[in-house]
Each structure stands twice: as C-alpha cells, then as structure tokens.
Amino acid sequence: MSKVIEFLEKYFVPVAGKIGAQRHLVAIRDGFVAIMPLIIAGSLAVLINNIPIDAYQNFMARIFGEGWTTFGGYIWNGSFAVMSLLIVFSVSYNLAKYYKSDPMAAGVVAFACLMTIMESAEEAWAIPYTWTGALGLFVSLIVALVATEIFVRLLGNKRLIIKMPEGVPPAVAKSFAALLPALITIVIFGLFKVITVALGMINIHQLIYDVIQAPLTEMANTLSSAVVIVFLTHLLWFFGLHGANIVEPLVQTMYLPALEANMAALSAGVSLPYIVTKPFLDAFVYMGGAGTSIALIVAIYIASKRKQYRSLANLSVAPGVFNINEPIIFGLPIVLNPAFIIPFIIAPIILTIFSFLVTAAGIVPRTVAMIPWTTPPIIGGFLATGGSVMGALLQIVNLLIAILIYLPFVALAGRIEEKRQAEIEIDT
Amino acid sequence: MAKKVMLVCSAGMSTSLLVKKMQTAAIERGLEIDVFSASQAEAKEYFDEISILLLGPQVRYLEGELKKVLDSMGIPMLIIDSRDYGTINGEKVLDEVLAELKKGEPPGFHEEKEDKP
User: Fold this and answer.
1) Does residue A403 surpass a pLDDT of 60?
2) Are A241 and B82 in contact (CB < 8 Å)?
3) Please, which of A289, A376, B18, B82 could form a disulfide with A330 given CB 3.0 to 4.6 Å?
C-alpha cells in the first residue's frame, strides 16, 4: 500500500496540482463561482413554483391568483435562462484578471463576440433563449477563452495604441488603448461567423451542442462517470489536495446543463431526464464534506475512546454539519493515513452507486435544485429533490451506510495507534 | 498601521475557522494584526492591502500561480502546515506569521535602538 501511495504522490499529485492551477480552468471555475448566487436564486424560484404539495399549491393560487407562478418564471428568466450570457463575461473577466490586463474591457468584448456568432431566433429578430441558457454553455466557455486570449494579447501590443497628440490628457489617451484591440477581436469573430454561414453551418450553437455538449452530458450521466468523478475527488483529497475544487470546472460544465434540463422538465410537468447532477453528489455523497466525513465523526463517537480522536471530533462536528471538513481531513488526519484511505474512498463510491440505483428505480425523485454546498444534510436532500421527504430519507440511510463502513476502520486505526505507542514505550 | 494577514482557501470557508483562532490569539498578545480569509477567486482583490498571504494546504497547488504576482509585490507567502490547519492551531500559525514578517523588516532596525542606552 505504501508503495502505491508513494508512486501516486510522485506522479499523480504534481499533475493534479498543475491542472488545479491551470489558468483557463481556474478562470472557468471562478467564473462559475461568480454566477452561483444567481443559479441558486433560479433554483429557489423553481422550488417555490413546484413544491409537490397540493395544499401549498392551492394556497398560493388562492392568495396570488392562478398565475402566481409567473413570479418564479421571471426570476428564472434572469438567472438560469441567461446563464451562458453571464458566464461568458465572468470567465473572460477572471482570465483577463489573471493576465493583469483590463478585466472589464475583456468581459465586455467577450460578451460582444458571443452575440456576434449567435444566430438570432428563427421566427423573429430576437435573442434566442434556447441558447442563452445551459444549452449554450460550451460555446460561451470557448468564446470567453478565445476572445480573451486574443483581446489580452492585442491590448498588450504597444503598436496598437493610438497615439494622441501632446496635450491630450493621459486619461483620455488611455481610453483609446482598448479601441483597436476590441475592434480587431470582434472583427475576427464576425469573419468567423460569415465563413461558417457560407459553409452552411448557420447555427454554431446547435452544431457545438450536437457534437460536443450533448454527448458529454449524456456520457457524464452514467453511473460509471459519476463513480470516476467521485473516485478522483477523493483520491486527490487523500493527498491533501482540494479534490472538489480541482474537478469543479469539469463538474459544473457537464452537470449544470443536466440540472437545467431537469428543472425545465419539472416546470413542464414531464419526467426528469437526468440522475447525476451536482446537487445529487452534494446532497447524497458529500455529506459533511468529502468522504461523507460527518459519518466518520459519528463513527469516532461510537467506536473510539482515544482522547485525540474525540477532541478532534468535537472540533470538527460544527463545521461538519455545514459540509466543511478540513479539520478532520488534516487533523485526524485522513491525508496520507493508510488506515483511512479505504473507507474514505470506498464509502462515497458505495453511496454514489446506491443513490444512483434508488433514484433510477424511482424510489427517490431526481434532483432539481442547486443548493448551496454548505446546506446541512437532511435539509439538503429535501431541497435538492424539490421538496421530497424521500430525498431527506435517502440522506439518512446513506449516513447510516457510511457510518457502518467507517466503524471498523476507526477501531482499526485506534489499535494501530495503541500498538505504536506501546512500541515507543518499550523502546524507551 | 495594523498588519493585514490574508488566509486563502477554495471558498474561504474552512480558513475562516483558523482566522477566528488567530485573531483571538493576536488580540490576547496585544498585537495590531488584522486576520481575514478570502476565497481563491477573491484573493487577488486584496493584494494591495496585505502584509502576508497564508495558503490552506488543500489548495497548495495554487502556490506557483500566486507566487509570480506576490513576489513582484514583495509580499511573503506561507503554506499552512496541514496538521496545524486540521487542529485549527491559531497560536502556532500566528507564531509562524510573526517570524516570517520579522524577516521582511529592515535588518538590525530594532537591535540598534536597544543598543543605545
């Protein structure tokens, strides 16, 4: 086991670290962070509209009239429905900031470039909601990165600064700095659009969606993909790296469209298409944080009399309720601790498989709402499933499973520790 | 002027636990130090104000990216020891911060003063 750990630490960890700090991925991740409050607001709007309790629905209709759900609809229009317009700006902004360029100018230009290549709605000359939501996510990410790269390079080019005659205030001269770079960037996108249309590719969004995004979303929504993501996240955490943070750009890009499809289906009253979403993982697997570590805390209370473990459990339980678990990961520690690698990785994988199966069987409803990842367990499952008691129940069952998995290892770790202490005493 | 110490992790949540402990320790010792936490996305906003940046061990892979900028500004950076981080040992991390900040001060500055009777 120690050989495997050594090998991984030498070859896997540096690569993961590089990926975690890669500037484009960091920009995408920070871009998603910036729009997350709106995504959560949109989720709440859908929740308010769709809580599956007749008495509630009747009550709302009686007070606000039959059309009461339009309120949630409007908020949806301002959040989920324009997610791709928001993300093109926020990603571009963050990337330009990394380059210490002009983030605001870059974000505005990237937005313009996206609109340049977006085909207007068929019926009328209008921005198509079809592509401003999650379905256009890939195009937005690509445009944000490409446009920003071009713009930032041009902005750094001294020959493109329009020289002002002497006597023009420096502030005025500076305002012209972005003129040519912005112009050239949008012209490049304009030409690209003209060429693709000439080649018969009228709708770039449709094309990218069909060729890249839809297959990826489908692929990501299999049980095996979910298990791979959960496995990777925990393997990284085992080495003390923030696994969830490193896979975040991938997870958001693949699972936000799935969540949006579920929400749209819920509003339309048809069956929900996808099982795996980010709230699915947050609610049913990452309870107490990575490794379902709230279960480990409970297991320590049950099975360990060691003072060190107990005091650490006391320290970890309050943040753990809000899914923050660095104290237990670094303090116990779980990091590089052979006694805990097995349950820390196996428990979340088993929960992923179990949750997937009971959801696929229709026992627990599919997830429809993005919940803040700090939402405590039991409440989280209830909200993520659109207000279903079964969602909360699955979390309780999952917690029990995870506790059972951790129990023998807590006892084992205690015994290993005792043995070592005994050896130290003999030596001295 | 109070020295500003910024702790950075992915969302600024887990570091905020340590912030509280460090701030309490600093006040007890009567030090004029302002400790706060930030997410990695926000961190860059504060570079102009801070005296030192502490990185959570779980995001230590950001070191290279941050170092480039911080070095040019002459701001030191420490990666928090993972055991101290886990046990939320505010006293010990504060000790390390003070030691690191002392390095940055002009050499012999305090000593000279004390030498004169």
Assistant:
1) yes
2) no
3) B82
